[in-house]
Amino acid sequence: MRLLPWTDVGGKPCYVVGDGAGYVSRKADEVESIQLDMADELLSHADDLLADDKATGPQIRFLAGRLTESLRQVVRVADSRGSRLDAILPDRPEPGTEERKPDEDLP
What we know:
The protein contains two helices and two strands. It is mainly alpha-helical and 107 residues long. It has one domain. Helix 1 runs antiparallel to helix 2.
């Protein structure tokens, strides 16, 4: 089963069952691509707005709302893709459980 990048009217997750080559899967691929492109554009806009000393509170709140929506979509895409990877690579380690090398420690 594939988690789709949209929900039903009530906000519940939608799934498709298949081999990934059908119409719904292709549409999901297109929607995911659009969502990721929009997130990238929004980040660029956020950089510009946050660098502007004249940005107003309402502008920042509006930006925060759009960033929240976009992040929610990107997390959904990541969850969907991670689940599909788990299905084809079941022995893959859980994220964050790999042993870290000393030079990879964060400050």
